[in-house]
Amino acid sequence: MSRRAPRRNKGGLTDEQKNNLFEFKLDERLAIETLLRIEDRDHAGRMIPFKLNYAQAALHGLWEKIRAMNIVQSMSNLEVLAQKTQSKDTSLSSLIEAICKTGVSKVYYNLKKERFNVVDGPVRIIIGKPRQVGISTYVQGRMFAKAMFTENFSANVTAHKEAAAQNVLRKSKLYYDYWPSEHAGIRTEADSNSRDGIVFAHNSRFVAQTSGGRNAARSYTFSAVHLSESAHYEDYSAIAALLQAVPKWGTVIDESTGNGRSGPFYEKWQAALAFEEVISAIENEDAHKTSDWNRYFKFFIPWFDDQEYELNIGDYEIKHIMGSLDKKEEDLIKNFPKQITPQKLAWRRWKLSNDCAHVPGMNPDEYFSQEFPADEHEMFQGSGARAFNQEALEKMKLRHKKTKPKLSLVLNQDWMPLSASGSNANLFVWKEPIPSHQYTIGVDVGKGLKKKDYSVVTVFDRCDGTVIEEVCRWRGHIEPLLLGDIVTMLAEWYAGAFVTPEANDQGQVVCRRLLDNRYPFLFRRRVMDKASDAQANEKSWYIGVVTSGMSKQHLIGRAQAALINKTIELVHPVAIREWMLYENQNGKYNAPAGEHDDCVMADALALFGHEVGAPPVRKHRIRQAETRDKLRPDDLRLWQDIQVAFQAQEKENKLLLGKDWLPEREL
Fold this sequence. Notes:
By secondary structure, the protein is α/β, with parallel strands linked by helices. Among the domains are: 303-384, no CATH class; 398-613, Nucleotidyltransferase, domain 5 (2-Layer Sandwich); 631-667. Helix 2 packs across helix 7 and helix 3 packs across helix 5. A hairpin with a 4-residue loop joins strand 19 (528-529) and strand 20. The protein contains 25 helices and 24 strands. Residues 1-9 and 661-667 have low confidence and may be disordered.
């Protein structure tokens, strides 16, 4: 049995305090605005009551609607629920509206009191926002109040940096320290108040940490998790483990400003739905829409909804601003005529010229759109330090969203291909070999260890010689020696494809294996004499490409140009994701921490082999083969007879004329 939480009033709670405590438990907004104090944004060092602003009130409303929807869906008798909430009918929309009007916590409490088996969770919200609108403050304030009044409730806040995590915890400690004296009797005492969090006397806790930090808290079970600025996490792997600690009825709030069209936050946003979309899909029984839904609700707030984001200006300044609008400002006024005022445009211009200039890799407009978006599209517009064109990759991703591989197989060292699906497969074939086509293969070699980088073999169709299209990909963990056999097999299957392997470290083993297998069509580079800068021996060659810092820039530069010029087409979703995440970190190309770049390098090597090493595509042979394939059986036999007769005539002429049969030319 859990023990009653100690209070400041050792003699117990008075009737008035009990009534206040009960009222605060049933009205989260009342508790926040009455009991919590925050720092005044306009006057440093001054503590003021926490009154919800527009953005915070909108998020509070969505949070309550989601809880109401969960109550409706878990209630077996909707007629009883409609009667208790005075709903006009039993439709989902009407019941949610009635529950919110009555008070979600009040309805939930009364139903539980009458032994109805209802739940108000889970609550999963993903939030896109501009900077400094108070979303993080509201979320942690609500979780703090819940932990204060609820036994055995654990809340976790994870920030992208240690300083941010400590700032979150500092605000929570201010909530505790500046608790109003008139309600001191209902404040739960803190057993522990450390740099990692607060532990209350009734076994509830409020924990702050960084993504992948030393206090990752894998051993806890958290009733609520707040992911702050998750689009900027350096390592997302620990977050996956943290989310496993949230029960299915728990709360997860994922909020961030944008950081380009890639990464876990962007992918989660793309799979989320707005609350109205979910209600419409449920009422219309749209299984197609709900099947692709990740159970997160979207919440977006534009920058101009914050009343703080405007400047006080005179009439002459208003006249100047309205007479000097640029294209972006005209679009803002056109799309948001009621919200965009000259005062807000003045603030935007001030922000652009002062705080958004001199950001590496982004112009002021792009950076402003990322940090202060006007809509969902702008939130993910900024590309930051991404190496590749995000818009081109996004279009490629949409083109192949529903493209399924023709074959999904498991191919390992036992050389027995087995049909597989999903994450079990490591060989994906979208198009089988066409004998008349020419192919290029890139090979990135891993060490074969399961927890290390992958080995990747990518096969592209060289088409007409101007565009390469992905047709096959092997991605897995295997010993380099055995990988050489897989490369040989795929290269021979794809009509003698031109192979460009990596020659670094373990790549030398693959190159050696390809030579042992007598595979002829390999990328070769000359052995140079360092003293004379000339070829040391005309018969000496190296196999493969050494990917040093300089050569990697050359490879990635070619890949960037191919993507912009639309001369490369990727299909595999993992490959597209790696391309989207690939970064330029102070002039050095690498994958972000915790991510992989094996597909990027394999694709870049295949492209390099196609453009530099492989012989040109012979278009007339492709047309010949395609024409031959279209012939009917009788026409094909006639064509073959003509070919045989021509060859016989050619042989006879050669015997009769001897050397005169060939034109004179220098060999």
